[in-house]
Amino acid sequence: MSTRSTSSFDRLTRTTVLFLGAIAFGIGTVTLVVVEPLVHQLPSSFAIVAFAGFLAILSGLWIVRSRYKSGVQQTTIPNVEAILSTPAPGHETDRALRRLTHLREGTLQYREQIQERLTSAAVAVIMRREDCSEAQAIHQLEEGTWTDNETAAAFFSGGNPPKEPLTARLVNRFFGDNEDPYEGWVRITVDEITKLAEIEPATETDETDDASDTDTDDTGGFFERFTSKIDGEEDDITLLPASYKSPLEDDDAERKGNVASRRVLETNHWHGISAIALVGAGWGMLTFDPNVLLVSVVGVALAAYARSGSAPSVTALDVERQLSNESPQPGETVEVTVTVENTSDSFVPDLRLLDRVPGPMEVVDGSPRMATALNAGQTATFSYTVVAERGTHEWPLVVVARDFSGSVEREAAIDVESEMDCVPSLQTIADAPLRAQTSLFSGQMETSASGSGLEFFAMREYQEGDPMKRIDWKRYARTNELSTIDFRQERAAKVVLLFDARDSAYVSPAPGRRHAVDLAVDAGTEIFTALFDRGDLTGIAAFDTVPCWLATSAGDDHSERARQLFARHPALASLPPELKDVEGSYVDPLRHVLRQLPVEAQVMLFSPLCDDYTVEVARRLDLMGHLVTIISPDPTNDRTPGQRLARVERSMRIASLREREIQVVDWNVDEMLGLELERAKQRWAV
Questions:
Q1: Cα–Cα distance between 304 and 302 in angstroms, integer?
Q2: Phi and psi of 129, rounded to 5°?
Q3: CA-to-CA distance for 681 and 443, rounded, in angstroms?
């Protein structure tokens, strides 16, 4: 969680330069102040002083460069008030475009990647719009006849990006303010593909409007690239901060009891003083001005004061956390109160406290952070309110302690004995859209077999032993012949709720919005309850790096097992696989599910459909005779070319699934799930 971009070599170099500067300062001071006044006739005194002054100025300038290049080093405090942010679909295209046009990296690799992505989307759109073959669609692209926009047509027909005026190129090169020609070419082409596909614009929300467009942020022009490149700096914009992992898991963390701490971090706050002192001393030596030299002594004293500091110990902090409700329901608010006591005998002059709220939970009132100073035996208290999310949550208190000067600091994480256990209750406001063999039904599974039931099936001759209530007495009164009414036999449906929980499913329309897996699990909880309440046999499965399977069954014990699985199973956790503490390996969904899936079971597949893999899973399940219904929360947006392209691709996947008579609920997540299911039922009934 700390910013530690300065390498050990840089620290050694800076220390060496500072040491040489101090030696030069000492030699020059002694020569100028002591030796030179006593021995005016020594010809070598001027050379010694001048050399020492020159060396001191060079040392100071080197420190200025190092300070300007590395900046102030300090612990990076994550934004834990908002929920964990995940990227929007299409972020990989935007990242490739950004690296290609602004960072000038992977020219051939990224250009081919972008070309292939746009070609695939354009072919799919043309095939659907023109009802033609793939070869005919490719021919239209190569000939440029698929659109009237000459710029977009040239993208696939071997043309060149539109030329940019010289002044615009210079501004873009040095300041990074203008759009790169290739970037503009891609944007125009994507917009034309979107127009051809007749994709409706994404619904704008306050969260989307306020969110910064991190995937396409400009990194600046020549000057920023020249001055800001430092060792260890990430070029990629990531929305999955490592701070959401267990803290201080790196190699230099030391654990003592319930406290894990890193080594002391030099903040560089006072390096400017060292540079000023050395440059001033060097100038005083070169000009043989003792007054300037003596004034620089003040800077030397301040620099020495800063370097003499040591970070306070944080092992003697006693932390207590109280929760207003330790077993809340998802969506309920919980007040958290944290009390920190300094049990040591020393004063902590600068203490930064941060309760590292778990990524899925949002702070809605108060603040989980506090800055204070603690005397021996003194306590500090702060409180905040969070919205509970499913799962069992434990989290540490992150502490950053500094000395008086602020030149050094120490970061630590203190484990706190408190736990929030949030298990959803099974309740629903939505009906499950199950399928019959020949028609949509609500309730238990319709079959083609006759027997007892509610819906008329057939009329047959009376057989001895038939129940009296099933005899058609009206017909007997007319014809004096006994006949028996058979009704459509009903039986409990077997349904498996299958969740796409791969890393690619953890996507959301904008930073700070809930990702598709969380939305899918919420929907699955409601649908499971609807099926369970009407007597259907329901199971749960997920394909992720951690196997997840609950066989179809019924009863209170089964319901409780499902409730615990929704809350605690790693495959359905709110954190993406790369941030989970559970180790796993690849799970083939078909092999994992099919070997346990009942032959007559239906599958309700929950996925954002952001890649072709889940589409292939649905197709293969359908070919094997399982009726498939897909509940797909829409995580797409249209703020960037990559996002618009991903929106088109998802639309084409849904259309291809529906062509195969696989039912898809394209869920606009700004709408209630129940309303979307009702609309889908009406559409399927027609």
A1: 5
A2: -75, -40
A3: 13
Asked whether residue 98 falls in the same domain as residue 206, the answer is yes
Question: Are 303 and 327 in the same domain?
Answer: no
Q: What radius of gyration, in Å, describes the C-alpha atoms of the chain? A: 34
Q: Exposure pattern of 324-337 as b/e (b: 16+ CB <10 Å)?
A: eeeebebeeebebe
- State whether 206 and 302 are in the same domain: no
List the CATH number of the domain containing 534: 3.40.50
Residues 164, 112 share a domain: yes
The residues, any chain, with a CB within 8 Å of residue 83's CB and separated by 6 or more, are 359, 360, 361, 362, 512, 513, 514
Vertex 514, ends 511 and 515: CA angle to 5°? 90
Which candidate, 347, 294, 356, places its Cα nearest to that of 316? 347
486 and 508 together in one domain: no
Angle at 216 between CA 244 and CA 606, to 5 degrees: 55
Residue 368 lies inside a defined structural domain of this protein: yes
Judged by average pLDDT, the poorest of 19-28, 143-152, 320-329, 458-467 is 19-28
Average pLDDT over residues 208-228: 36
Look at the chain and count its residues. 686
Domain C-terminal end among 275, 307, 339: 307
Which residues are within 8 A (CB) of 302 and not within 5 positions of it... i.e. 6 or more apart? 270, 273, 277
Q: Do 572 and 599 lie in a common domain?
A: yes
Can you name the residues that pair with 552 across neighbouring β-strands?
none
Predicted confidence band of residue 68 (pLDDT cuts 50, 70, 90): low
Judge whether 433 lies within some domain. Answer: no
Looking at the structure, tell me whether residues 633 and 507 fall in a common domain. yes
Are 24 and 283 a contacting pair, CB within 8 Å?
no
Indicate the SS3 state at residue 151.
helix
Instruction: Calculate ∠ Cα 392-397-402, nearest 5°.
Output: 165
Domain residues for the domain of 465 are 445-491
Domain boundary (422, 453, 473) is at 422
**Domains held by the chain: number:** 5
Contact 97, 642 (CB under 8 A): yes
Instruction: Supply the pLDDT for residue 387.
Output: 93
**HEC profile of 312-353:** CCCCCEEEEEEECCCCCCCCCEEEEEEEEEECCCCCEEEEEE
CA quadruple 216, 218, 219, 225: dihedral sign: positive
Indicate left, alpha or beta for 567 from its phi (over 0: left) and psi (-120 to 50: alpha).
alpha
Would 239 be classed as within a structural domain? Answer: no
Q: pLDDT tens digits for 552-604? A: 988 889 999 999 999 889 889 888 877 777 666 666 767 778 788 888 899 99
The verdict on residue 236 lying in a domain is no
- Is residue 348 exposed (0-12), middle (13-18) or buried (19+ Cβ within 10 Å)? buried
Q: What's the pLDDT at 473?
A: 76
User: In terms of domains, do 572 and 529 share one?
Assistant: yes
